[in-house]
Amino acid sequence: MDRPPIYVLDTPGVLSPSTRNVDEVMKLALCDLILESATNPRYVADYLLTGDFSYTKHLEIPGGPTDDIDKLLLRICSEKDWRTRCLTGLSYEERWDFDRAITAFIQLFRKSVISDCCLDKELLRRYM
After folding, report:
1. Where in the sequence is the signal peptide annotated (predicted)?
2. Is pLDDT of 21 > 80?
């Protein structure tokens, strides 16, 4: 066994990182370190929303802060008038473009617009 027939090296960035729990997966997805197809962007946006209302300064949407991702996405779409056309049966209908709102909300974090957002708050609490 000292001389295996093949050696496999993990080149950083080629394989998906190994994770132990959902919390780690969400943090990696927020930082765009895993493929977006490996997670549901709606859940990632909801994870970012949990307990952090610093987005209110940057989105400028009415209604104040909310911890409900569905309400937030509806407010973003209605304020920005983001709509999409969907084929429903035999005709097209206009609906709110929630996918665009989700992407825009996640991009606030990825582009450092939300400056005071820390993903490892539980680790910092140990030292405070």
Report:
1. none
2. yes
